[in-house]
Amino acid sequence: MQKLGRPWGIALCLVLLHLRSAADDPVKPAPAPADEAERAKAENTRATEANELIARAQAALSGKKWAEAAELLQPLIAADPKRWEFRQSLGGALLNLGKYDEARAAYHDGAALAQAELVTAKPGDAARQLAQQAGRMLAAEGNCFVKLGKSDEGIACFRQAAELDPDPGTAFFNLAATCYNAGRMDDALTYCNKTIAADPARADAYFIKGSVLMGNGSADKTGKITFPPGTVEALQKYLELKPDGPHAGDVKAMLDYVVSETAAKK
């Protein structure tokens, strides 16, 4: 029998420190109280300025003023380069500006910082949230790669995200959609099943699964078509979850075709 191939075209939318001993330097006197007061005042000033910048950056992000947000986040990163949250926000702003390569770099650095922090984190809710955010940044980096036309690199990022994120449904779906669009149907089906196992309510996973299974239908010498088990069920599940979804029209047409062909065979 000959496989039917891909039935429906869809695009879904991945300083070194020199240490010296105490004997190397003469003992320095303790700072005078006045010096301590000046130091505390300077620290408070820096903290106030940083908080003001953070508030302005958050307001710009909320208002979708992406260029302004990106500009405000740069000095925050320079002042506190180990804060992965700033890089995550910068990645989002740059992504919305269409600066995919710069956004990818911001997400990559943010994910690396979060993963380094995760190494020493104590097990618990905080560590779980940290792993989730690191996974999301890796998934966002993968999305940037896909937008740059680098599917293989995107798939690699999505796989890392799925391994790290305690809720890997989104990463698995990104893998399914990217593999489908790249024509890697067996992989797409595998990741659809993983998506459904992790997040049974994700309707688009059933759409891709139904599309792949429908494409795996085969015709005999008389032209009668047999579809793999689960084809109808996957398409019906999409309609159950999203009866008015963006793919509902395509799914109904696909179902009509599968049902009519199955009836003709009988």
Structure explained in plain terms:
The chain is mainly α and 266 residues long. It has helices at residues 33-62, 66-79, 84-96, 100-119, 125-147, 151-164, 169-181, 185-198, 203-215, 231-241, 248-265; strands at residues 2-3, 218-219, 225-226. The chain has 2 domains: 51-166, Tetratricopeptide repeat domain (Serine Threonine Protein Phosphatase 5, Tetratricopeptide repeat, Alpha Horseshoe), CATH 1.25.40; 167-266, Serine Threonine Protein Phosphatase 5, Tetratricopeptide repeat (Alpha Horseshoe). Strand 2 and strand 3 (225-226) form a beta hairpin. The longest helix is centred in the first third of the chain and has 30 residues, at 33-62.
Relevant terms:
266 residues, Serine Threonine Protein Phosphatase 5, Tetratricopeptide repeat, elongated, mainly alpha, 2 domains, 3-stranded antiparallel sheet
Secondary structure: elements and pairs:
Elements: E1 2-3, H1 33-62, H2 66-79, H3 84-96, H4 100-119, H5 125-147, H6 151-164, H7 169-181, H8 185-198, H9 203-215, E2 218-219, E3 225-226, H10 231-241, H11 248-265
Antiparallel strand pairs: 1-2, 2-3
Quick synopsis:
With 266 residues, the protein is mainly α.
From the alpha-carbon coordinates, what is the Rg to the nearest angstrom?
Answer: 26 Å
Number of E-state strands: 3
Separation of the first and last Cα atoms: 18 Å
- Whole-number mean pLDDT: 87
Shape descriptor: elongated
Structural class: mainly alpha
Q: Tell me what the CATH architecture of the largest domain is.
A: Alpha Horseshoe
Q: What is the CATH topology assignment of the largest domain?
A: Serine Threonine Protein Phosphatase 5, Tetratricopeptide repeat
Order of helices and strands: EHHHHHHHHHEEHH
Oligomer: single chain
Which residue ranges are poorly predicted, with pLDDT under 50 across at least 5 consecutive positions?
13-28
CATH superfamily placement of the largest domain: Tetratricopeptide repeat domain
| Helix percentage | 55-70%
If strands are numbered along the chain, what order do they take across the biggest sheet? 1-2-3
**Which CATH class of the largest domain?**
Mainly Alpha
